[in-house]
Amino acid sequence: MYAIVRSGGKQYRVEEGALVSVDHLTGKAGETVTLADILVIADGDDVKAGKPALGGAKVTAEIVAQGKGPKIQVFRYKNKTRQRRARGHRQSETTLRITKIEA
Fold it and tell me: Long-range CB contacts (< 8 A, 24+ apart) of 21-27?
């Protein structure tokens, strides 16, 4: 059984017991989070899809860790003018363990 969940404007395919890194969610490690924006739930050949989301479906997850993603280098450059600017960015992210998928 798997579900497709929308969190932070992105979509993730999740299964029970899987670890998923999503954009930052409020909470501390060990707390439970409910994701209510479920787009698809599939159990074998039985597939339920919402328009755009399924009503009454939810995915329960436990926060494993709060952290930062990989560093991204941003470099802006204009030729012939000696304009250069280098910056770095690390996006905050939350690691979730999916505990339950409810249709």
Answer: 21/69, 21/93, 21/94, 21/95, 21/96, 22/93, 22/94, 22/96, 23/91, 23/92, 23/93, 23/94, 24/66, 24/91, 24/92, 24/93, 24/94, 25/63, 25/94, 25/96, 27/63, 27/66, 27/94
